[in-house]
Amino acid sequence: MDLVPALQEPLKKVLGPATAKVMAEHLGLHTVGDLLHHYPRRYEERGQLTHLADLPMDEHVTVVAQVADARLHTFASAKAPRGKGQRLEVTITDGSGRLQLVFFGNGVHKPHKELLPGTRAMFAGKVSVFNRRLQLSHPAYELLRGDGEEAVETWAGALIPIYPATAKLESWKIGKAVQTVLPSAQEALDPLPDTLREGRGLLPLPEALLKIHRPHTKADIADARARLKWDEAFVLQVALARRRHAETQLPAVPRVPRPDGILAAFDDRLPFTLTEGQRKVSEEVFADLATAHPMHRLLQGEVGSGKTMVALRAMLAVVDAGGQAAMLAPTEVLAQQHHRSVTEMMGELAEGGMLGGAEHATKVVLLTGSMGTAARRQALLDLATGEAGIVIGTHALIEDKVQFHDLGLVVVDEQHRFGVEQRDALRGKGKQPPHLLVMTATPIPRTVAMTVFGDLETSVLDQLPAGRSPIASHVVPAADKPHFLARAWERVREEVANGHQAYVVCPRIGDEEDDPKKSGKKKSPEDEAEKRPPLAVLDVADQLGRGPLRGLAVEVLHGRMHPDDKDAVMRRFAAGETDVLVATTVIEVGVNVPNATAMVIMDADRFGVSQLHQLRGRVGRGSAPGLCLLVTEMPEASAARQRLGAVASTLDGFELSRIDLEQRREGDVLGQAQSGARSSLRVLEVIEDEEVIAEARQEAAAVVAADPELRQLPGLRTALDALLDEEKEQYLEKG
Fold first, then answer.
1. Measured distance CA(54)–CA(57) in Å, rounded
2. What is the DSSP secondary structure assignment for residue 202, as one 8-state letter?
3. Backbone angles phi, psi at 510, to 5 degrees
4. pLDDT in tens, 182-233
5. Angle, vertex CA 728, rays to CA 228 and CA 246, nearest 5
6. In principle, which of 298, 365, 590, 713 could form an S-S bond with 456, CB 3.0–4.6 Å?
7. Distance between CA 729 and CA 721 in Å, rounded?
């Protein structure tokens, strides 16, 4: 049996039902193995004290500090009108900073006896501010006694592990639970092949687990982390390598363009030359299409780098070879827009079977959920007979009714908006698995591409086509300098006066119920700005129309509008009938209006770095320079302002995606792209550990090539099963 009984043991049996329940609900830990892989966040040295000055607001923290003084106050209150209310104030210090602890009512007796000046303890609670001073109210605490009362092993190590904890379970209780299960670490099956582990001088797994939870020296921690990083990187890369290996075993129809076909005719009529990057990436794609197993390629490129042109040429190559190509877009607006731009680029080549169509022409059909019955029936017929070589649509393409004559290529626009099942369903429409090209305008650093999209080969378009204009970006600090905001609206009026158009983007629509309970997450009190709800499209459009942009044609666009209304608004804006479009992020992807030159993003601090970069790419698409103004009420010193400063300072999407990653936790990044990897990364840091990931990828490819079923490596198989339980297995099938 492959499973390791000791590590599979449910925590209920080992720690008792109450503790196990809290661990399962709040930390997602269910078995002994889960708990052993719940690593300390950091370590306190027994002789040293924590830096109290650096505590984060509103977070649950654990600190090691010394009691400086303790005072008991009595006061009158509604509950204790005779001045019998009691409040204990304890000041703790780390030698430089101080922190106030408060206890009330009956809760004062025990700490009053125990927290005497000079006592050292670990304190856990939520940091808040009272009278402009940091405080913990009713913190849990654990005294650090030097004498023999305490179990010697617990505090024998000079380094005290501080675990990711919750209000329901303090770090030291987790530490004691770990102490209970630590002997089982001896039975951990090692996922790394011996040759790899010895060749790289890595600790065996049981020893690494022991050292990360009970280190005696800082070197122990470093050795353990180095080893555990390798586990995470290697197991994930093996999963991806097996996926790639399995793909190469699938059959696909090679699609080779004809020298005198529709692709050649299309290239002849192009009014411009392709960039060097477009030519190079097209060659990579054509080489993949010519093979007898399915292409799996990720095409990344900045907004406006010409990805659609590369995808269209690939689709035409497949049509040349007798197949059909489908392009999946995340929204109807985008599908309609792709359809418009593809038919415009192709001209008479898109008029197959029509009068005036060119000799090699094919039909390009649109298929979306909101089409009328007759148009839909005709589109379905054209697909089934093969009359239509190219179809562009939304999820509607995936429905059972849609039959293809011979589906050869699927192009997915904006990968992260499509679910796995949807891609699988579309794949099943081909007689053999179709080739797959995934496009994303969100630049992904190389290591994330290797981790999240590791089953896809990657191509990057990093040149902008000639004629694209630079975009100037500025932060507008509305709270510190209100006149900057007034000037922003003047700039919008100036752009419109020069014959251009502008976007105003807001985080929310404004017709939803404002229910603070629903938002679930408490806001961090960086500033008052965080206390009010984010600005909404409907309110902002109304204020602008009556105020600073009075007299201009202002319209709104958001995701809850009827598709026909959305399309009508976009058409009017594209035709230049609307001066200013106030919208949510529905415009983030693919809206192409070359005449729009200015964008004002309200509450810009509510958007992620990559999202701001995406949005900004909607302006400066023509020959006139673009302008992007990031409006925020955040104070100058806040992290949010630094983020906006970074966006304003560079147009390099890859640089920004690195900044974005460094500022967010890895889990969010991978969680957003692929929730399956979220729980699996505990010590691996995608940006910093680039080398480990790259080396693990090579090692994994070699291991899988030699033994695809991993028959010789039971420990690795067990680790893979743990990583890829059913749901996560699905997630890795992004291809």
1. 9
2. P
3. 110, -5
4. 888 888 888 899 999 999 999 999 999 999 998 888 899 999 999 999 988 8
5. 95
6. 298
7. 9
Helix (H, G, I), strand (E, B) or coil at 505: strand
Strands 85-93 and 60-75: antiparallel
CA 718 from chain center: how many Å? 28
533-559 pLDDT per residue, tens:
778 888 888 888 899 999 999 998 887
Query: 3-state DSSP call for residue 457?
Result: strand
Judge whether 388 and 357 are in contact, CB under 8 Å: no
Residues 6+ apart with CB under 8 A from 587: 503, 505, 557, 581, 615, 618
User: Which tokens belong to 265?
Assistant: 């005719």
Q: What is the DSSP string of 80-137?
A: -TTTTEEEEEEEEE-SS-EEEEEEEGGGGHHHHHH--TT-EEEEEEEEEEETTEEEEE
Alpha carbons 435 and 448: distance in angstroms, whole number: 23
Distance CA 496, CA 580 (A): 8
3-class SS of residue 393: strand
List the helix and strand counts (H, then E) for the chain. Answer: 28, 21
Please state, in angstroms and rounded to a whole number, the distance separating the CA atoms of residues 648 and 630. Answer: 8
Average pLDDT, the chain: 80
Is the pTM above the cut of 0.70?
no
Q: Are strands 324-328 and 296-301 parallel, antiparallel or unpaired?
A: unpaired
**Alpha-carbon gap, residue 461 to 299, rounded angstroms:** 7
